[in-house]
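Note to self: keep these together.
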Amino acid sequence: MNLLPPGVPPESSAEPVDGRASRWQGHREERRRELIKAARRAVHALGSDASMEDIAAAAGTSKSVFYRYFGDKAGLQQAVGEVVLGQMQQRIKEAAQSAQTPREGLLAMVSAYLQMAETSPNVYTFVTRYSAAESDGGPTSIATAGALGHFFDAIADMIATPMRNHLGEGKEAVIGYWPNAAIGLVRNAGEQWLASPDSPAKPDQETMARQITDWLCVGIAPELSNEGPPPTKGST
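Structure:
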């Protein structure tokens, strides 16, 4: 017995509905990718403090569209961060794979990190800091930490692997702490370098990468004098 409504052939099933749902989902995902690209371009041009309204205007759409797809500004940061940091992670991984020694690997990774961050400091800052409240009082949330945490966890694993191979067994105490400490040094020094205005005293990217790598490998020992502090006035 045909239990379908009159005029609907027996071959019809839920498949067309599923097909429409699939096409609609594909459309939403494509639209979301387009909005992420547009937001990235807008932040690059306008600065990391660009508001949702500024970003939407630059993208040729309304702020409500961005809220519909990303929830709030922190959600947009999270989405852009997943793309940008994913690309950085891949570039750093490729750089490390071409190295012959752990130190060369560190230099390659630091260089790749600085190069990509320097390409667009505005975008880097946008995806690596927490969102401030929007001026219109719109809701925000601290979601950026998700993409950022995943990124730095992945980089720590990249550092730990060659260290484990190089140092051998019994060095887990070092390997357990040093990669995360190294990331803190690289990130803080790198972000200070990015934020510093251009001047004759500011090192170029290659020099900064080598300096950071030296700090990671040997610290500041070469800079310290073995003669002790200079005598104070009146001392004998």
